[in-house]
Amino acid sequence: MDDRYNGQLKKQPRATTVTGDGKPSTQHMGIMVFLVSSGLLLVLSGCTVAANVLGLVCLAPIIVVTWPIWVPFGIVLFLVGTGMLFLCMFGVMAAFVIDALVVQVLAKRLRFLVYEELFERNRFISASKEF
Q1: Residue 65 CA to its chain's centroid (Å)
Q2: Cα dist from 54 to 46, 47, 48, 49, 57, whole Å
Q3: How far apart are CA 124 and CA 66, in angstroms?
Q4: Spans of biased composition, class Polar residues (predicted)?
Q5: Could you tell me the pTM of the whole model?
Q6: What 3 state SS string does 1-34 have?
Q7: Which DSSP string corresponds to the chain?
Q8: Over the range 11-40, which residues count as b (16 or more CB within 10 Å of their CB) and which as e?
Q9: Which of 26, 27, 8 is closest to 16 using CA atoms?
Q10: Closest by alpha carbon to 62, among 70, 50, 72, 53?
Q11: Which of 11, 30, 102, 122 is the most exposed place for a label (fewest CB within 10 A)?
C-alpha cells in the first residue's frame, strides 16, 4: 500500500541518467548493442564467404576432372525435379476441379431435394384444404 499516495500511484524514478551532451545513457547502450551485433554479423558473413571461397578452390580440380559426370547428372536432376513439380501441380489442379464438380452436383441435388420437399408440402396443404 505504500506505492499509493493520495489514491494515485507514485511515479517510479527512471533508471536513465543524463550524460554531458544531454542524451540519456539508454540511447548510448542501444547504440552499443547495435554496433556489437552488427560487428558479429559482419564477422559471421565474412567467415561464410571465406569458407565458400576455400571450398571452391579446394574442390575446383575435382569438379574440372569429373564434369562429364556432373553435367548429365544435373540435366537429369533438373528434368526429374521439373517433372515432379508438374505432377504435383497437375494433382492440385485435379483436386480443385473434382472439388468444384462435387460441389456443383451436391448443390443441384440439394436444390432438387428442397424443391421436392416444397412440392410435397404444397400438395399436402392443398389436399388438406379440400377437406
Answers
A1: 41
A2: 12, 10, 10, 9, 5
A3: 86
A4: 14-23
A5: 0.39
A6: CCCEECCEECCCCCCCCECCCCCEHHHHHHHHHH
A7: -TTEETTEEPPPPPS--B-TTS-BHHHHHHHHHHHHHHHHHHHHHHHHHHHHHHHHHHHHHHHHHTHHHHHHHHHHHHHHHHHHHHHHHHHHHHHHHHHHHHHHHHHHHHHHHHHHHHHHHHHHHHHHHH-
A8: eeeeeeeeeeeeeeeeeeeeeeeeeeeeee
A9: 26
A10: 70
A11: 11
Cell numbers 544531454 label which residue?
Answer: 22
Side chain identity at 55, as an amino acid letter?
A: G
* Residue recorded with cell 505504500: 2
